[in-house]
Amino acid sequence: MSHISKLPRRRFVASALPAAAWMAVGGGSRMEAAPQKIEGDQMTTLTSYLLFDGTCHAAMEFYNSCFGGDLSATKVKDSPVKDQMPAAQHEKIIYARLKSSCIDVSASDWLSPNGSPIRGNTVCLFLSGGTAHELKTLFEKLSDGAEVTTPLREQFFGLYGALNDKFGVRWMFQTNNKV
After folding, report:
1. What is the per-residue pLDDT across 98-111, written as a single tens digit (0 to 9) for each?
2. CB of 56 within 8 A of CB of 73?
């Protein structure tokens, strides 16, 4: 008889909050193109979000060389949250985005002091834009049986939340629209 063991769900990456915050305010330095601010009335979109252990800049430049497109990146030291982060984190990327005709990927370096990146917890699905009502509805539906790691709530940059669904898939939610 085979035995299937249930693996514990991995905790959601706390560093995603500052990254989503910085993406929402649309500031920062450029690699090639300025970050695009998500407009509140834009339809909610789904993209991938990658987390790196200090190699975000190099990884995104490599992906840019493979796929082309516009690449933007912001270091912690160039963001409004720099004073809330330890000096050792200031050279890390708080938010990067690569967008081309065939790819749209957001990324950041791992910024959580309470965990370490391991294979399998460095990729999540990112729902962004749209209305607060639309985002709340999606969050509530995906919360069924989920581990809510960051309740959906107002932040200075808009509405944000995160969860691991009942199948272990990690999700982040963000819109500039406030409730």
Report:
1. 999 888 999 999 88
2. yes
